[in-house]
């Protein structure tokens, strides 16, 4: 995940997976945690276990829900999806 500024303070945020087209438990393992961005850091990686299968199917998606941030102010609008 990325933050849009590299402020002089540490920012901590809670995260959890949220279903998309992937089925929690069948296609991925539900996950959650917290991540801290030390001062000057703009990017962090979180891990989610993806369960492979042999079914022929379209690409599947999941989302991350962010909550309980400390040391940051929320953005006015979420960034556009890539």
Please give a structural write-up.
This protein has strands spanning 11-19, 32-37, 62-70. The protein has 82 residues and is mainly β.
Considering the chains and any ligands shown, give keywords for the structure.
elongated, single chain
What proportion of the residues is helical, as a percent range?
Answer: under 10%
Question: How many helix segments?
Answer: 0
The helix-and-strand class reads: mainly beta
| Share in β-strands | 25-35%
Poorly predicted runs are none
Let me know the largest β-sheet: 3 strands, antiparallel
Radius of gyration: 15 Å
Alpha-carbon distance between the termini? 12 Å
Q: What is the 3D form?
A: elongated
Question: What is this entry, summarized?
Answer:
The two termini are 12 Å apart.
Topology:
Layout: E1 11-19, E2 32-37, E3 62-70
């Amino acid at each position: 995940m990325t933050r849009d500024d590299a402020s002089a303070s540490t920012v901590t945020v809670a995260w959890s997976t949220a279903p998309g087209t992937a089925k929690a438990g069948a296609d991925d393992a539900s996950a959650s945690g917290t991540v801290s961005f030390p001062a000057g850091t703009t990017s962090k990686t979180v891990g989610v276990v993806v369960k492979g299968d042999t079914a022929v199917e379209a690409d599947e998606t999941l989302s991350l829900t962010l909550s309980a941030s400390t040391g940051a102010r929320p953005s006015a609008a979420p960034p556009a999806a890539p």
